[in-house]
Amino acid sequence: MGQTLTPVVRNILIACVAVFVLQMVVGPGMVATFALWPPNDFSPHFEPWQLISYAFLHDPRNYLHILFNMFALYMFGPDVERLLGQRRFLVYYLVCVLGAALAQLLALSALGNPPSPTVGASGGIFGLLLAYGLAFPHRRLMLIFPPIPMPAWLFVTLYGLIELYLGVSGHDSSVAHFAHLGGMVGGFALILYWRSTVRRNGR
Question: Which of 9, 43, 159, 183 has the most crowded CB, counting CB atoms within 10 A?
Fold first, then answer.
């Protein structure tokens, strides 16, 4: 798992790290232009490209944010890319990013939270976790905290349920929990679409 970087995973990783360094050099101006802003009267910053571009930005004040995302990309991405192929993997990742963005905007609108920018690759990463759990359900994963081994399907299910609880309960509101869930939903919808296409073509 994650021993050798595949081409698309490598390029996403390089892009995220390069943008992170650029953020530290340029300053907060990149957030105003490329982070995901809610499209309402209180936030004039929204642009359509932000539905994708936000996933290549991270909080430059929080090194753990990009570290954990890139580590998860490195660990889970290559196996999923080898399974799907480069083109489909890129499409899948971007659909997860888009699903996460839409879920986050809906959550901000429904909860009436003040406009704030969303950044980070977590939505795409959660979509990769879902694909990994579906493709390799019985592979054993070792958690860091606590150090307990469990099958991939259980890890992904528990992680999704925790994110749902945290999002609904409002715990740790600084984290975009609904974006994480949106990434999983977007990925699952695309997988179902691909499977239905295969079944139709097989008839």
Answer: 183
> Domain 7-202 maps to which CATH number in 1.20.1540.10, 2.60.40.1180, 3.10.25.10, 3.10.560.10?
1.20.1540.10
Which pLDDT score is estimated for 2?
Answer: 45
Helix axes 177-202, 152-169, angle to 10 degrees: 130
What are the residues whose beta carbons fall under 8 Å from the beta carbon of 20, sequence distance 6 or more?
A: 57, 58, 60, 66
pLDDT digits (tens, 9 = 90+) for 96-116: 999 999 998 888 777 666 667
Per-residue pLDDT, averaged over 2-29, amounts to: 90
- Per DSSP, the chain holds a count of helices (H) and strands (E) of 8, 2
More confident residue, 97 or 174: 97
Q: Does residue 166 sit in helix, strand or coil?
A: helix
